[in-house]
Design a protein that fits this description.
single chain; 697 residues; alpha/beta; CBS-domain; Beta-Lactamase; 6 domains; 5-stranded antiparallel β-sheet; 25 helices; elongated
């Protein structure tokens, strides 16, 4: 750095004719505290400072006094092109800077020097900070006792903490797997140590910061190697898959042969020897034309047909031992070369033929067992309060049973009263968490001011009126079990953020608490609102929606599954007869009327209606006259089956439609083939055959 880069350029000057008033005017502008004095030739003959001006006034001189009477004539001039280091140690307060023509070009004062040095230090610090922030690796610096004094953005991102949560903290608290004494007290260097920070895998390098031989701190570098770990894991997965593929091919009961497009045998599994009595080692690596075997022509025929047609080809072969063999060649196609391989599956059909005969013999027995299992399953669900005939509802229950085996988050949607809580309980009772608690929270029933403390709990003395012992939240109470968040759409936005964190980390912080509490809880959410519309309206967080919507289960309203109305009515009638000690029955016309009602309140409305009929009807037979008027008025008829003729179709098709509808209605109402057949006037075997024909069983 040269002198002219730090000097004060083009300073205001005085002449030999200038007075103390002229000097004072310069100083009042506040830019400098001294002014050079030039003669008629422009040469510097002296300099006057503020101190000299004040001294002259103190001695009795006035502002009309010429400056030449009080100026300092001891001048030190330096060239503007010399390095700053050459004059930085001079003890003078100010230096005159001249150019090659010996003309004054500036002044170098100690105040100006301090200001320039400070500015240079600021620029250097800003540049260093920008470099550290741009570094891809996380960088932290500590003082000599291990307190963090610097952290860049990459480190903050790896640690998943805010700047405020990091600055001033002990490095050992932020990085529990790192012992700072190795570096700060012993001066050791830690290189390439693998650590895990929450969900991030990183390499840690730490070095002591030395100043004049003394350790004054440490610098820690964190390199995120999660992607490298993932790549290594993926490579290991590929190796495992390759080994698994080999094991699968070897474990196949069918013989498998892989041939390239030139007819060279690449791979044959051990089942080939079982079927043909020939060791695979005798044919692997040879072309089909080089193999002397009675079946070689068939292999070649399959290969040629697959290469020509570009699709699977099957052939049959009978061995000298009388075995029936089915050959199926499948092309392996790539974008670069087309058909690259042909895989021939060789199946011994002799045993399969025998198995098929046995299968035919057992088919009737399997049908009978299937019907028994179906009835037992229906009885089991009826004990849980679930009765269904509708296919859509059956799929919902089957999906619930399937997802119950794992801990995936489930979002149950449907109108109010369709039975979302019942489905949630089915998931819980059929899951590995069945022995754990099942906690249900209605997010819309708890005041917003209390909901946070109810869900997350609080530490002692967190707020006015809080229990001195604190309180365990519902999330903790559900630990080891299942938590049902009913009416999740009513959850306030501020709590949605906290719930999202719980779903991500399986950790909860009580109100007023600083230590996370580890959770092991399965979350099931339920709502009758359209969360997608709420996401678009910014009243429900999009990230929380996708966290909850891992396995969506939509329960159809009762009006869309009318086949469930009669079984549910029977279930509720039996339930309330048993509860109140009655023996009430519903007349047939009541069932027909119930089936034609729209049920805006869904299953809950039906249950409430049956209970009201049981407790308010004096007769043992409940008829349509006991029904509320709005249900009877909505029927629009007798409730019998109605068919609207909208087009002309063959009589045979129409007959089949009516027959299918009658059989379906009879099976729904009477529950067994024998009772349904008796009501329809057909035998059990005839009804079974027709029900299978129409896909009803």
């Amino acid at each position: 750095m040269l002198v002219k880069q730090v000097m004060y350029r083009d300073p205001q000057v005085l002449t030999t004719s200038s007075t103390l008033a002229d000097a004072a005017a310069i100083y009042l502008r506040g830019e400098v505290n001294c002014a050079p004095i030039l003669d008629e030739k422009g040469q510097v003959v002296g300099i006057i400072t503020v101190a000299e001006l004040l001294k002259a006034l103190q001695e009795g001189k006035d502002f009309t006094t010429p400056v030449v009477e009080v100026m300092d004539r001891n001048l030190v001039g330096i060239p503007e092109d010399i390095p700053f280091e050459a004059v930085s140690d001079l003890p003078l307060e100010r230096l005159l800077v001249i150019n090659r023509e010996q003309k004054l070009t500036g002044i170098l004062t100690r105040i100006r020097l301090i200001r320039q040095v400070y500015q240079a230090l600021q620029e250097t610090e800003n540049q260093l900070r920008a470099i550290l922030q741009a570094a891809p690796n996380g960088i932290l610096a500590t003082d000599k006792v291990g307190k963090i004094i610097h952290v860049n953005e990459a480190a903050r991102r790896i640690l998943d903490l805010t700047q405020e949560e990091i600055y001033g903290q002990a490095i050992g608290d932020i990085l529990p797997n790192f012992n700072p004494e190795e570096v700060l007290f012993h001066g050791h260097t830690v290189a390439g140590r693998r650590i895990t920070i929450r969900h991030t895998v990183a390499l840690l390098t730490a070095n002591p910061i030395l100043h004049r031989g003394e350790i004054v701190g440490a610098v820690i570098s964190l390199q995120d190697i999660s992607d490298l770990e993932a790549a290594y894991s993926e490579l290991e997965t590929v190796k495992a898959l390759n080994q698994e593929l080999t094991n699968i091919i070897e474990s196949s009961y069918d013989a498998i042969m892989v041939i390239d497009q030139r007819g060279k045998v690449l791979r044959v599994n051990s089942s080939y020897e079982r079927i043909f009595g020939i060791s695979p080692t005798k044919i692997i690596g040879h072309r089909l034309t080089e193999i002397e075997d009675y079946c070689t022509k068939v292999w070649q025929d399959v290969l040629d047909a697959v290469l020509q047609e570009g699709q699977p080809v099957s052939r049959k072969l009978r061995t000298p031992a009388g075995k029936e063999i089915l050959l199926t060649g499948n092309p392996v196609v790539t974008d670069e070369v087309g058909i690259r391989r042909v895989v021939i599956n060789i199946r011994d059909m002799t045993e399969l033929t025998q198995l098929q005969a046995e299968l035919e013999q057992n088919r009737e027995e399997m049908a009978r067992l299937f019907q028994e299992v179906k009835e037992l399953r229906a009885r089991l669900f009826s004990e849980e309060g679930v009765v269904f005939k509708d296919e859509r509802m059956q799929r919902v229950v089957e999906q619930a049973l399937l997802v119950a085996k794992v801990d995936s988050t489930v979002l149950i949607t449907g109108e109010s009263g369709v039975g979302k809580e019942v489905i949630a309980k089915i998931i819980h009772k059929n899951s590995p968490r069945a022995k754990g608690p099942f906690i249900q929270v209605n997010c819309g029933a708890i005041p917003e001011t209390l909901l946070e403390s109810e869900l997350f709990g609080y530490e002692p003395g967190t707020f006015t009126g809080a229990s001195r012992e604190g309180k365990i939240g519902l999330l903790e109470l559900a630990n080891g079990g299942t938590l049902l968040l009913d009416e999740i759409g009513e959850l306030p936005l501020n709590l949605q953020v906290k719930l999202l964190r719980v779903l991500q980390d399986q950790q909860v912080f009580r109100l007023g608490g600083r230590k996370p509490i580890q959770l092991d809880v399965r979350i099931i959410a339920a709502t009758n609102r359209d969360l997608k519309e709420m996401v678009q309206a910014k009243t429900f967080r999009e990230d929380l929606f996708y966290r909850l919507n891992v396995v969506p289960l939509e329960i159809p309203p009762l009006r869309e599954r009318r086949g469930d109305i009669v079984p549910l009515a029977h279930l509720f009638l039996e339930k309330f007869n048993r509860k109140y000690g009655f023996k009430k029955k519903l007349h047939e016309e009541v069932f027909l009327t119930l089936e034609n009602y729209s049920w805006p309140g869904n299953v809950r409305e039906l249950e409430n209606l049956i209970e009201r009929l049981v407790v308010t009807t004096q007769e043992n037979i409940i008829t349509c006259k006991h029904l509320p008027p709005h249900i009877c008025d909505s029927q629009g008829g007798t409730g019998a089956l109605h068919f609207n003729v909208r087009d002309v179709i063959p009589l045979k098709d129409a007959t089949e439609m009516v027959e299918k509808a009658l059989i379906s209605r009879a099976l729904e109402r009477y529950g067994s083939l024998r009772r349904a057949g008796s009501q329809l006037g057909v035998t059990h075997s005839t009804l079974l055959r027709k029900a299978r024909q129409y896909g009803l069983l």
